[in-house]
Amino acid sequence: MKTPLKFLAFGLITLAVASCSTPTNKTEEAGAVVDATPKGQASVVDDESAKNILQVAASSPDHTTLVAAVTAAQIEHVLVNAGPLTVFAPNNAAFEKLPAGTVENLLKPENKAQLATILTRHAAPGSYDVEALKKMVAKGRTLYMATGDYLEVTVDGDDVLINGCKIIGTINTSNGIINVVDQVILPK
Amino acid sequence: MNVKTMKKQHFINKLFALVVLAGVVTSCGSSENSKGALGSDVASQAYVTPGEHDDFYAFMSGGFSGQISVYGLPSGRLFRVIPVFSQDPEKGYGYNEETKPMLETSFGFVPWDDAHHPELSQTNGVPDGRWIFINGNNTPRIARIDLKTFETAEIIEIPNSGGNHSSPFTTENSEYIVAGTRFSVPFPQKDVAIDTYKENFKGTLSFISVAEDGDMDVAFQVLLPGYDYDLAHAGKGKSHGWMFFTSYNTEEEHTLLEVNASQRDKDYIAAINWKKAEEYMAQGKFKEMPASYVDNHYDESKQMAFSETRNTVKVLIPSECPGLVYFLPTPKSPHGVDVDPTGEFIVGNGKLSSDMSIHSFDKMIKAIEGEKFETTIDGIPVLQYEEVLSGIVAQPGLGPLHTEFDGKGNAYTSFFISSEIVKWNLETKEVLDRVPAYYSIGHLMIPGGDSKKPWGKYVVALNKITKDRFLPTGPELTQSAQLYDISGEKMKLILDFPTIGEPHYAQGIAAELIAPNSLKYYKLEDNNHPQAIKSPNDSRIERDGNIVRVYMGAIRSHFTVDNLEGIKVGDKVYFHITNLEQDWDVPHGFSVMGANNAELLIMPGQTETLLWEPQREGVYPFYCTDFCSALHQEMQGYARVSDKGATTELKWSLDE
Fold first, then answer.
1. Per the domain annotation, does B457 fall within a domain?
2. So what's the pLDDT on residue B40?
3. Looking at the structure, do residues B586 and B560 belong to the same domain, yes or no?
4. Same domain assignment for residues B131 and B236
5. Which residues on adjacent β-strands are paired with residue B201?
6. Nearest by Cα to B421 from B443, B389, B406, B395
7. Which of A50, A84, A174 is facing B631, going by the closest CB pair?
8. Which pLDDT score is estimated for B553?
9. Among A36, A50, A173, B376, which one is most buried in terms of CB atoms within 10 A?
């Protein structure tokens, strides 16, 4: 799924060109360009530690859309924070299941806040691997997400589902856990 | 006011007038200085933009705090306090089971010392960033700190020493670091009347070998007359192979040294030919003497310290080893002895002398060859003063203590009484500049300034007295350092900053020689601590009599078991906690209510152990003390303590 990345790159170039040609009138755009690459924890250079959630996602060819969306929503610093965080990470195929044009629309700068909320609903404070999630089901707990929502966890045979989205893989990272899901988690 | 103090006062007045005059002259010549250093815009020179790094590390002795503190230059920002000779509850050093052995001595556990002189290891006469050494003055010891981990890796006790002050100065390739005794003591130690000092007291100068891996060993000691040995520095370049020690109290007095030790015109710099010493050692010309001292190592693989006691030491006696030691007469209680980057000039800072005597290494060798001896003491030839003297710096100030070098032919000497730094030319002995220090400077430090290649950009004044320089904090004030730019002809004060303990001496080094090697975390796979756990599933409790061992992990944001039962009053509970993180800058802390020691502060991949001896039945919380994560405040657990005779089952769990 290369389109969003290309789109994003194109957008940035456009902004950059615009801000260069008319520097005085385009401060807002110029600011946006600067903000797109803020210096924060995501820019810490560390090739030695175990990889964090963002680094793992960025190195996965199946999560290019998610990473592009995280970048566009400017929440990459959250994913490198001390955490611990559990991210239910829709793969590229999951994004492709959305109605045509949805992703492209969300990646537009004016929809940044909406995109951030959607993505943040995929993150839960705490470390939840599949075993921990099964225990939650057994104990009748719900899953508290970073947006403040509670999501339903269910077990279907060996599968664990979050609001009906199936976990199809789990990766431990330095600052939490990535559970790959087959659908984008939308509010019920 | 008696005659003596009146004279002194008169001298100070004269000096003051001179300083004022000098100030007026320089201010006429330079508009930049017209407002004085404090009035001009100098802040930017010490300013390091937020997020940017300093150019230099400065390692400052914590003096009587017993520790080393690490600062950045030019900003003066404090990065870390490295616990060395003193227990540190913040880091659990000397409190946890792993590091308690580091503070063992032949006198038992000594949890404090007076740390004076940090000294960076060198390769080819240049600081190399591998280790920094520091002396413990009170219970004679030397510590080696690993600059990959910034942790104390070894502490070795020095036998036959009464106070390890002239230490731990290094040779060009850290073949040896040295330890000269400040206080002479009976040799070997015995119960004698103090007034038999001249007969029974001796001074030892110890040479500590440093192996490839850093391991220190007392290679040999040289037995000298019962003087006070003050400071030292190694020869460099052409004088490599020699080590120079200052002495005072060559009167060999044992009371009121303030008066008695200043009776003679000159004391001595002892020049030791350590290459010659190696020959004598190889020939077996040493005496093996009984001694008792302890060598403590921190084993990075096992992640704990071990103590070994040593029972003998090899001693060289100068009268039996011709050519090993020579005395260079130097006026009035020389304090620092500093060798310039070329190895030619040996600067004796006679602290009670009005002039400074600079010896020449070439002349010293000639005088030895020509046997220009004025006398011999215990088989040690005393060279004729005029035969070794390169020249004097006349009336440079009052109370010269130490000299460092900029590598451009200039020397910078600290003056305690006149409270100033004086810059002078090594060849011409001409004074070039002087700046006041606030107040009463002791040592001074130029990064690399006692090595062959100084980074001659800054000098740091390490001051003894602060008075009104900062906001007051009751009777005890912060001690302080001052940073001067020495890149131009004139020294320029650019920053004052407070320090921890007494910043006795310091070493500076270019940041790029250390920063890239700094360890980010300990690899769990290399953790060979006998009580480490590698996975949360290995968490458990074991009982053996009244010894209870809790094997526990810490990972954001929980302990890998957090409900413990079956502990009883009278048990010795060892919490062996492994930080299971493999991520930069994610330590976990651990503390338990009522523990009679301190916290643990466990680096990622590390295992540490806290001993808890619960005294009362009840249920006691434990928690993570280092803010580790968003759910740090939730990182807690409970330990149930039952009565001695209770039958409570040993039980541990997480989320059950």
1. yes
2. 57
3. yes
4. yes
5. B186
6. B443
7. A84
8. 98
9. A173
